[in-house]
Amino acid sequence: DTGVSQDPRHKITKRGQNVTFRCDPISEHNRLYWYRQTLGQGPEFLTYFQNEAQLEKSRLLSDRFSAERPKGSFSTLEIQRTEQGDSAMYLCASSKPPGTSAIQYFGAGTRLSVL
Amino acid sequence: ELKVEQNPLFLSMQEGKNYTIYCNYSTTSDRLYWYRQDPGKSLESLFVLLSNGAVKQEGRLMASLDTKARLSTLHITAAVHDLSATYFCAGRGSEKLVFGKGTKLTVNP
């Protein structure tokens, strides 16, 4: 499977715990995005990387959230001191550089439940 | 700031019927995307519309873009049960996608 891969698929945690999600993009894609989707809503942008550089962060991304893409390949999204409001599906997407149609291809997501 | 609105949010239709989903966006977007999402699954890219008047078709789905009206439509022809899913449109604001709330389509036999 050469699509976007996310791990884990499901995560249940207690309020106050830290969690980390991983995303492996499609290999030739240099752009990587994180989105959050809650029930009945469309995905909301969190942040994106071009190679290893984090170029934009949404104001939705509080200081409890941090994302990295250390070698320009896989990325991690960490949430510290989780709150019940963090419960959502976290989606990762990747795309080729601009100048093309720049379709973002999405992974299957990590569903986070904070108890 | 780009905002995207879809309507209807829920659509129940019979097999064999035609219908249109509408997507309005608030400011200039250089491209418009349509995605499909099945329950518990991720988003699947359907169409990318790049210019005014663009029309793309795949099977029973046809998407169009009117940049002057800031409107895109997704037309469903002779619906079949397999088309049941949630359909999202998204505009591009800087480098990120801004999604509508989605249209949940149910096709009944």
How do you describe this structure in short?
The complex is a heterodimer of chains A (115) and B (109). By secondary structure, chain A is mainly β.
Output the keywords.
heterodimer, A: 115 residues, mainly beta, 4-stranded antiparallel beta sheet, B: 109 residues, 5-stranded antiparallel beta sheet
Give a written overview of the molecule.
The complex is a heterodimer of chains A (115) and B (109). Chain A has 115 residues and is mostly beta strands. Chain A has no helices and eleven strands. Chain A has strands spanning 5-7, 10-13, 19-24, 31-37, 44-50, 53-57, 65-68, 75-79, 88-95, 105-106, 110-114. In chain A, the strands form two sheets. In chain A, strands 2, 4, 5, 6, 9, 10 and 11 form a seven-stranded mixed β-sheet that branches. In chain A, strands 1-3-8-7 form a four-stranded antiparallel β-sheet, with no helix packed on it. In chain A, a hairpin with a 6-residue loop joins strand 4 (31-37) and strand 5. Chain B has 109 residues and is mostly beta strands. Chain B is 0% helix and 59% strand. Chain B has strands at residues 4-7, 10-14, 19-25, 32-37, 43-49, 55-58, 61-66, 71-76, 85-93, 96-99, 103-108. In chain B, the strands form two sheets. In chain B, strands 2, 4, 5, 9, 10 and 11 form a six-stranded mixed β-sheet that branches. In chain B, strands 1-3-8-7-6 form a five-stranded antiparallel β-sheet, with no helix packed on it. The N and C termini of chain B lie far apart (41 Å). Classes of the chains: A mainly beta (115), B mainly beta (109). Chain A binds chain B through residues 31, 33, 35, 40-45, 48, 55-56, 58, 91, 98, 101-109, and chain B through 4, 31, 33, 35, 41-45, 48, 50, 88, 90, 92, 94-102.
Q: What is the strand content of chain B?
A: over 45%
Sketch the topology of chain B as an H/E string, one letter per element: EEEEEEEEEEE
Largest interface: A-B, 24 and 23 residues
Q: Sheet with the most strands of chain A?
A: 7 strands, mixed
Mean pLDDT value of chain B:
93
Low-confidence stretches of chain B: none
Q: Could you report the average pLDDT of chain A, rounded to the nearest whole number?
A: 93
Largest sheet of chain B: 6 strands, mixed
Q: What is the H-and-E element order of chain A? A: EEEEEEEEEEE
